[in-house]
Amino acid sequence: MASKPKILTASSDPRCPEISADYADIMEQHFEIIHHKLFEQHPSKYQDIVAIIWICGPDIDEELLNKLPNVKIVATVSVGYDHLNIPLIRNRGIKLSHTPGVLNDAVAEMGLTLLLASARNLVRFAEEYKRGTYSEQVPVNDVTPQFSGSTLGIVGMGRIGYTLATRAMAFQVKILYNDILRRSTAEEKAIGATYFSNLNGMLPHCDFVIVLVNLTPETTPIMGEEQFKHMKKSAILVNCSRGPTVDQEALVKALKAGEIGGAALDVTTPEPLPNNHELFKMSNVILTPHISYQTRKASNGMMQLAVDNVLAALDGTDLLSEIPY
Amino acid sequence: MASKPKILTASSDPRCPEISADYADIMEQHFEIIHHKLFEQHPSKYQDIVAIIWICGPDIDEELLNKLPNVKIVATVSVGYDHLNIPLIRNRGIKLSHTPGVLNDAVAEMGLTLLLASARNLVRFAEEYKRGTYSEQVPVNDVTPQFSGSTLGIVGMGRIGYTLATRAMAFQVKILYNDILRRSTAEEKAIGATYFSNLNGMLPHCDFVIVLVNLTPETTPIMGEEQFKHMKKSAILVNCSRGPTVDQEALVKALKAGEIGGAALDVTTPEPLPNNHELFKMSNVILTPHISYQTRKASNGMMQLAVDNVLAALDGTDLLSEIPY
């Protein structure tokens, strides 16, 4: 029996956790895994490595590529690829793939989870209940906002924004959205959405605002001091995109000044956020450690897509999800 | 100008919080509020009270009714009415109303909130993040279940169950349900639901199970030791009905034995649950202090319906929501 092709991947890197058993299982269906740490000990032993699967490492620089003359593809297990030196890799004739699409459901679901949890003060109630705040009496008069029937502003109506909108619709939510690109009339109608070319014009109508834009120079940040001033005092901001899309200092000021009602952030600047940060002290803020894509289903789906891209590259067929030129 | 009719309601009762400003505003549109404590000081001064609006008091017994010869209606601001001595009140020709329907949206929304939050381990991640567990690194390998695309079992497909199902549908969830009554084929089709006359036959298929039955002798409890044994080891139980529908001791055992994957409970036995209870120590359990109906919208909607019932009784027209005979 022929041995399996070898792929290089990272583990035990200080910034990179152990490769999960799920990930190893998916890779080992087709490949022999060479961990970066092992590779570094005897690089010349592994000249037959044919692909790199990037999880949260290894760093791919000229020195590494010089030691790997037979690599056909770098497959990153991520949607973003700003961690890769694309020209360096492409100039050597190495293909590049990423894993878009697979995590739409998971991220859209996390967006809804944070919208609902912040509407209903879920984390605060759970914490206070555990602490004994309600040991005498349930908090009958502590009424909360309601997501159902509210008005939701979606900042960034890409694939994830659209998936989220189809779900928010079921809560009889009025959907407004802002994006550079406008959706077709049919697509707008299907989710009952109203387009605003001007973000500041949309914000005053919204009970909830969720940021789902890509991180680009134009969206760094897209929500700042000016935008918070346009929001309702009761409105809640949710961010499931990337930390720098929200001006975090301006957000803290807006929350302290009561200019907005609350926030739920799966992404921050930096990540992880130091746990002495003042956002952790605000009872109207929910913080989660960038877990929006982190369901078993989405996570394994990304790895499977990376593996399928490597198989395609080795077969010489079209990649399933090549990084755009 | 004629003075407003007087109504009796409770406040400052040790078991009953102050009446909220929202509630007072709604009642004072039409009535003069006489607080029970004030009434007790000079009962004879308030013979012209025409209605009792029950919030979480007063206790309505023979002695109280003897002091209130002109009461036409007892309007309870609640869906349940097991706290009222119905025959005693009706025998005096006093009408009785409650407030069903108004809180369907809020309770169904809380059900979805708990389903999503427990799927994504939201409360645990938020707590651990705040505590500093992820101060070095975000928890990349800590993958969670996903609600989207899962199989949901709804125990009790009444108004709230059906509202919840329409929302769960948007998450591409497969819906199974158990109830004494089967929905019409058209209703089942509209939510893509499959009926199980036998609860134990449904449970093995479910990734999530939510209890939304009324509390009756038959449902006390409906989920017990036997049912937990039929559930998947990974399945999550959510209860948004009443505490006694779930056998809490059996639930604790099932969680400890790993027979089920987790639970999210807005209702418990007793309420509030003492904060030294072992359920509070389980990281796969979310507990909230009976807040499912507690949005401003639902809460004010209930009070408005109670007031409208009182106005109907004083006008001699049909009540909007009479307690059934």
Provide the fold topology.
Two copies of one chain form a homodimer.
Chain A: E1 6-9, H1 21-28, E2 32-35, H2 36-41, E3 49-54, H3 62-66, E4 73-76, H4 86-90, E5 95-97, H5 104-119, H6 122-131, E6 151-155, H7 159-169, E7 174-178, H8 185-191, E8 193-195, H9 199-202, E9 208-211, H10 225-230, E10 236-239, H11 248-256, E11 262-265, E12 285-287, H12 296-315
Parallel strand pairs in A: 1-2, 1-3, 3-4, 4-5, 6-7, 6-9, 7-8, 9-10, 10-11, 11-12
Helix pairs in contact in A: 1-12, 5-7
Distinctive features:
homodimer; 12 strands; Rossmann fold; 7-stranded parallel beta sheet; 33% helix; alpha/beta
CATH topology of the largest domain in chain A, anyone? Rossmann fold
| Average residue-wise pLDDT of chain A | 95
Number of DSSP-assigned strands of chain A: 12
CATH architecture of the largest domain in chain A: 3-Layer(aba) Sandwich
Please tell me how large the radius of gyration of chain A is.
23 Å
Terminal Cα span of chain A: 38 Å
Largest interface: A-B, 69 and 69 residues
**CATH class of the largest domain in chain A, anyone?**
Alpha Beta
The oligomeric state of the chains shown is: homodimer
Secondary-structure-derived class of chain A: alpha/beta
Low-confidence stretches of chain A: none
Quickly count the helices of chain A.
12
What's the shape of chain A?
elongated
